[in-house]
Amino acid sequence: MSKKYVYLFSEGNANMRELLGGKGANLAEMTNIGLPVPQGFTITTEACTQYYEDGQKINDGIQAEIMEYITKLEGITGKKFGDLENPLLVSVRSGARASMPGMMDTILNLGLNEDVVDVLAKKSGNPRWAWDCYRRFIQMYSDVVMEVGKKYFEQLIDQMKEARGVTQDVELTADDLKELAGQFKAEYKSKIGADFPTDPKEQLMGAIKAVFRSWDNPRANVYRRDNDIPYSWGTAVNVQSMAFGNMGDDCGTGVAFTRNPATGEKKLFGEFLTNAQGEDVVAGIRTPMPISEMSEKFPEAFAQFEKVCKILEDHYHDMQDMEFTVENGKLYMLQTRNGKRTPAAALKIACDLVDEGMIDEKQAVAMIDPRTLDTLLHPQFDGEVLKKTPVIGSALAASPGAACGKVVFSAEDAKAWAERGEKVVLVRLETSPEDIEGMKAAQGILTVRGGMTSHAAVVARGMGKCCVSGCGAIKMDEENKQFELSGKTFHEGDWLSIDGSTGKIYDGAIPTVDASIGGEFGRVMGWADQYRRLKVRTNADTPHDAAQARKFGAEGIGLCRTEHMFFDADRIPAIRRMICSDTVEQREAALAVLEPMQQSDFEGIYEAMEGLPVTIRFLDPPLHEFVPTEEADIELLAKDMGKSVAEIKAIIAGLHEFNPMMGHRGCRLAVTYPEIAAMQTRAVIKAALNVQAKHPEWTMVPEIMIPLVGEVKELAYVKKVVVETADAIIKEAGSNMKYLVGTMIEIPRAALTADEIAKQADFFSFGTNDLTQMTFGFSRDDAGKFLDAYYDKKIYENDPFAKLDQTGVGKLVDMACKMGRATNPELHLGVCGEHGGDPSSVEFFHRTGLDYVSCSPFRVPIARLAAAQAAIKDEK
Ligand code: ADP
Ligand code: MG
Ligand code: MG
């Protein structure tokens, strides 16, 4: 039997989302449970895929099937397409598997032409309604199918209203609307060069095609990327007989939620507009009435609607978002779906539903979108002030939270101003590692260049600091400490507010309020922790971040980078001396200065983690990141080292690398300068011994992680240095403390030879940032330059640095786990790349059998929830 591409609403059900889309499946479900739904049929998502496969054509077979269903619908409704007695009018609506509100297009009142309008006008005795339908249809069809552009029609409406001396659409008479329809058609002809189509079948195929085509429109593509919806899914099309909310004052159209989507309060929430159709409610043409008022004006329809709400919630066990129309006092349901909600509302609703006995705890955990949680952990703008403050620009929402402060242009200024007690927003062309201190001191960071994985974005997310990146509209003049945006020049000290959750930039100061995490948050996380198998650690370099992450439920540190500690003003001279040393003795002398500092850093982190595991990674970045670039600093270093400026410059020049990402870094540093590894080992072990002595109740097992290993012998070499140093200290201390030595798996060769490397390693930690770079062969800092083109051409759908590429990089991870465990069954496995906080990646790591994921502090709750969801899904 050939494939079925069309289903009557009465043939489908809620479980058929993949085929019928969310809207279609729910229209079918509502039909099945006996709710008043104008009947119709759904053309499947497979027909959409087929349309694209056929080169954007609806093939003859599918066209014939659609026409067969029009005939069936005519039978059901007793109306006929294009009929002059009792004409059938339909809406043509998109509907993907996952809801994409407003992203794709809808056409109403399809089936009208001049003759049919006349019939409707006469038969109904309501010519105003008939002509209102017709002008709306021409408008929507022209816009959606022929892409004429809404604005031309809106101008014509405005002119008509002005000519008639009225302000509202509803005040236009039947004759006015008839005249408008004529003007619309003339406009259509002048833009398209052909007459407006009169044949309902032609109209229908045009509309269906337009919906298929809208799957690929730019805003839908962006929405899908933001929401993890694959392009391959396609959209279904719903063809539904019309219910009319525009027939007069006992008609109207509304949207409503069964509970408040902003707060979660259990109270009907929504709006209703009399004598209106379709999007009039949300379009702001007239002010709609709150849904509560509907009970007075439409008591019967409202009573019926309340009943429907109860039935739907009981049926779906979730808060519903509904669209409906009242035609001559009678209610018609046009849509229902699980309503979108704020993160706070999501938590409240989940808890309430559990308390009401509608769902169990597992379902509560499964229904919350982990990605939204971190906004709850950051400060937010005061909603009232926010409404009144003009938006002057928008860019990438790189790191969530709200920030308000005075503009400064350099990291030093940010630090200096903050030390004086000023709140600042750091505005830079882009940031670099030297800016870290300033970024920490600022309330938020705004950059002109850089994408979601730029330095500023990654570092800010790590710190849990608000960041808006890549605002190309800013005309930056760093030298004169000013920039221009939206026609206004901002100087140092001017107030600016930025929202890292939306990417919006505001002129002036908007006070922030600390996010209040009600008891529901903790309750849901507590449930999540019962179900997950993956442990969740954090990436933290400072005691402050470590403590923060503990509050969010981190169960250890999966990645403590040691290099950030070297950038502090009191340490950088020593590391520079180390780099510019000629002899091992000189180098050791410089390292001896750093050692106690590192040791006390580690002690601080161990204290903050209260005996939980901490993985410390040895020095990783190429040394040139530490050397001075400013003339004055170079002179200082020269003096410090007793060398000439020329000599220092020669050393710096010698450190230049053509491709630093693949240069002299990671364990290659320890192989060339084993004394660095020895120093870091002493600092780690001594810190652990001290903390152990102070806290006998903890069991300290330091974990030392060697980065960028690609060959077992290089790991063996560095490990030997570590073990000899560590054992000597432990022995001398008369202790029997255990410690682990492991490696990051971040070079494809390490994954490919994981069986050998596992012989030398107590643990693997997948550094999926570098592993992704090296596997794809492009650097994440440069990927921004071409990824957009790749998205446009559907070569990649997601940023592989944000969401793990499961087919390629994931295969390496999976393979390395299996091979590693085969040679070393005790091997402990984790991941410490950015992916550790991405829900779909976490699900993959769960399936792959890792022991833990590690992510930045503010993503810890996301990972906890995602890990629980993965485990729950797995059970099924
Ligand atoms: P979106 O997915 O953007 O919400 P819809 O397909 O839901 O688009 O259509 C938008 C609006 O059009 C609906 O909310 C409803 O008011 C109106 N509409 C759609 N189909 C019909 C219909 N058969 N009868 C009356 N109104 C309809
Ligand atoms: Mg809708
Ligand atoms: Mg790395």
The CATH homologous superfamily of the largest domain is termed: Phosphoenolpyruvate-binding domains
Strand numbers in spatial order across the main sheet: 14-24-23-16-17-18-19-15
What is the assembly state of the chains in this entry?
single chain
Number of domains: 4
Mean pLDDT: 93
Indicate the percent of residues in helices. 40-55%
Let me know the number of strands: 33
Shape: elongated
Quickly name the level 1 CATH class of the largest domain.
Answer: Alpha Beta
DSSP strand content:
15-25%
End-to-end Cα distance: 32 Å
Number of helical elements: 34
Secondary structural class: alpha/beta
Main β-sheet, in a few words? 8 strands, mixed
Named CATH architecture of the largest domain:
Alpha-Beta Barrel
Radius of gyration: 32 Å
| CATH third-level topology of the largest domain | TIM Barrel
Uncertain residue ranges: none
Q: Which cofactor or ligand species appear?
A: adenosine-5'-diphosphate, magnesium ion
Describe, in plain words, how this protein is organized in 3D.
This protein has 876 residues and is an alpha/beta fold. It has four domains: 6-243, ATP-grasp fold, A domain (Dna Ligase, domain 1); 244-341, D-amino Acid Aminotransferase, Chain A, domain 1, CATH 3.30.470.20; 379-513, 3-Layer(bba) Sandwich (Glucose Oxidase, domain 1); 532-561 and 602-620 and 676-875, TIM Barrel (Alpha-Beta Barrel). 47% of the residues lie in helices and 17% in strands. The chain contains 34 helices and 33 strands. Strands 14-24-23-16-17-18-19-15 form an eight-stranded mixed beta sheet. Helix 17 links the parallel strand 17 and strand 18. Helix 22 (584-609) packs parallel to helix 26 (674-694). The longest helix is centred in the last third of the chain and has 26 residues, at 584-609. The protein is elongated and about 100 Å long. The two termini are 32 Å apart. The mean pLDDT is 93. Bound molecules: adenosine-5'-diphosphate and magnesium ion (MG) (2 copies).
